[in-house]
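All the exercises in this workshop are built on plain-text protein records. Sequence and backbone structure share a record, each on its own labelled line. The question running through the whole workshop is how a given chain folds. The record below serves as our worked example for the rest of this section.
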Amino acid sequence: MDILLVASAFNSLTQRLYAELSDHGHRVDAVLASHGPGPVRAAVRELRPDLVVAPMLKTALPEDVWREHTCLIVHPGPPGDRGPSSLDWAIAEEAPRWGVTVLQAEAAMDAGAIWASEPFPVPLVGKSDLYRNEASDAAVTAVLTAVRRYAGGSYKPLPQTDESIDVVWRDAFRQERRRIDWERDDTATVLRKLRGADSQPGVLDELLGREVFLHGGHPEDLLRGRAGELLAHRAGAVCRATRDGAVWIPELRPRKNSGDPAPFRRPATSVLAGFTRPAVPTGRTGPAGLPGESAPALPEAPVPFELPPDRRTWSDVRYRQRGDTGFLSFSFPGGAMSTDQCRRLLAAYEFALTRPTRVLVLGGARDFFSNGIHLNVIEAAPDPAAESWTNLNAMDDLVEAVLRTTDRLVVAALAGNAAAGGAMLALAADQVWCRAGTVLNPHYRRMGLYGSEFWTYTLPRRVGPEQARRLTTEALPVSAATAERLGLVDRLLPAAPQDFAAETERLAAALAAGPGLDRRIAAKAAARASDELQRPLAEYRRAELARMRAVFFDAGAPYHALRSAFVRKTPSGSPRPLAAPDGDLR
């Protein structure tokens, strides 16, 4: 069928549905409702789709569209659930299971007849992680079921007036419900509130007399202090005391009306560093438990890469070893990797290489693998061009270290999505293992960039020069199944999000114990030496960086406007996100 996706943003679920519906033989296009109803109406008139699917909408579909065409809305709640904050309520009420419902658009919000629904478990993870994983898996299953039923022509959707449907309206989950009472809320309550708003909208609070949104939360087992007090920092995050413990908060976001020129998420310490003059009156103690006149520097609380198994603290980079297999895990908010994060991950990688292992596995237990350089940190930098250059070189250093590893087999284990330089980091490994629900974006063009991270070496090596050209110029999302078919991925793991880490560990142990591993490592070293003679890695890097430097330091290059619009979440470019990007960056 011809299917039109209508979404407020070309987000992870919209990309995944585009890729998976395409894999099923449908002709799929997309239009962004964030550009207003006009482009939606125009796309419907032009394409005359058999079916409209709305994976993620913040505004209602135009009435003339849903009256004249069958429009299916993907609602992240079980049958009968209504309201704009479904996942927020699931986390706040500690629901053990939740669901996704595909219903037909009509005038009343979420009240249409049900075409399909799919339940999913609710683990103790952040809302954005839950959305990209368990909820996304359920949404894809439900949408494919609904599309199949619609195509069959005989299925009658279930009206919500049916006695089997328990209709529950849940109001918007506003900041008043999210607010943390640091004197009264225990650690479990604080973490639940933080998990429910980790990506959007954050939890509004005060630090050093300034209003900020808190993003993300993780428990701390040793540090203690007065409730609300800032205790320490680590890897860009800050630790804050609760009444019975402490939590780590990785990111902060200043309010838009705060006067901060960078009112978007970034590492907590970088936001606090901009608070040169606390805004509370002299002598007053702010909610963070720190004096309003001046804020003492926070002590650093470093931890080793290899933590004792009984520690319950936050670290975004960790190493552990099981027999002949090493596991270097990393988890960065949004998958973005700043200069500091790249350098710390490289240091951890170099540490891992000192350990006696035959197989080294890279990747976190769940959610994003990597999305490449950190556009938010770059946008907030005094000189974004210089920071872009520094960040990219740090990313290149990491990828080059992986490519030059010849004494063991390196596996990139993708529990979640990877894009741009993050996808190329995965391709630097000897094998790429991918959870079946993962989406890859192995290109840079939609950010106005040529690309680096040795993609001109690794991508053609895997898929051939013509396929590499198509992937980087068409710049479309690729499903895990298609990635395996193309050769981007070596092994597909049809595991649930919570089972991926254990399945990866089992497969890695079998690989390390395999009888042919020594021959594979020797062959890998010989191939790397042969490739180096034909064209050194340094030459690939030099050529790629020359193209990237020309863009970074050109104030008129589209990259700067595209980056700013992406970070600040303002509409830019075409409302048709699948259209071929402008400009020849080949």
Q: What stands out?
A: The chain has three domains: 2-169, 176-273, 317-568. The mean pLDDT is 94. The first strand starts at residue 2 and ends at 7.
